């Protein structure tokens, strides 16, 4: 957890990213893109994974690439980069 987030908010965002990753609604892509910018490595990793899963359910490929490419190229945490690359 990043110190810039309180524990409750971190937990809520983690749970939301997990729930969205289990879903099949491509309309949640913008919400996942926002989670991909959170200060927590765990939240960013979960968001990248969830975006990758949405590709099989008709998510807009251009929007997914736009969300994932910055994480794949510049995220300071290698695991987030790896999940974003896998999702791409």
Mind explaining what this structure looks like?
With about 90 residues, this protein is an all-alpha fold. The protein contains five helices and no strands. α1 runs parallel beside α3, α3 packs parallel to α5 and α4 packs antiparallel against α5. The termini are far apart.
Element-level helix/strand string: HHHHH
Count every helix, treating DSSP H or I runs of 4 or more residues as helices. 5
**Given the helix and strand composition, which structural class is it?**
mainly alpha
Portion in helices: 55-70%
- DSSP strand content: under 5%
Average pLDDT score? 94
Regions with little confidence, pLDDT below 50 for 5+ residues: none
Count the strands? 0
Q: Quick one: overall form?
A: globular
Cα distance, first to last residue?
A: 25 Å
Q: Largest sheet at a glance?
A: none
- The Rg value, from CA coordinates, equals 12 Å
Characteristic terms for this protein:
0% strand, 88 residues, single chain, globular, mainly alpha
């Amino acid at each position: 957890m990043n110190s810039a987030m309180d524990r409750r908010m971190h937990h809520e965002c983690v749970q939301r990213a997990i729930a969205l990753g289990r879903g099949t609604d491509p309309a949640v892509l913008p919400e996942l893109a926002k989670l991909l910018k959170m200060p927590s490595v765990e939240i960013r990793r979960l968001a990248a994974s969830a975006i990758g899963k949405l590709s099989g359910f008709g998510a807009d490929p251009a929007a997914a690439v736009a969300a994932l490419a910055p994480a794949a190229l510049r995220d300071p945490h290698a695991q987030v980069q790896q999940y974003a690359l896998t999702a791409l």
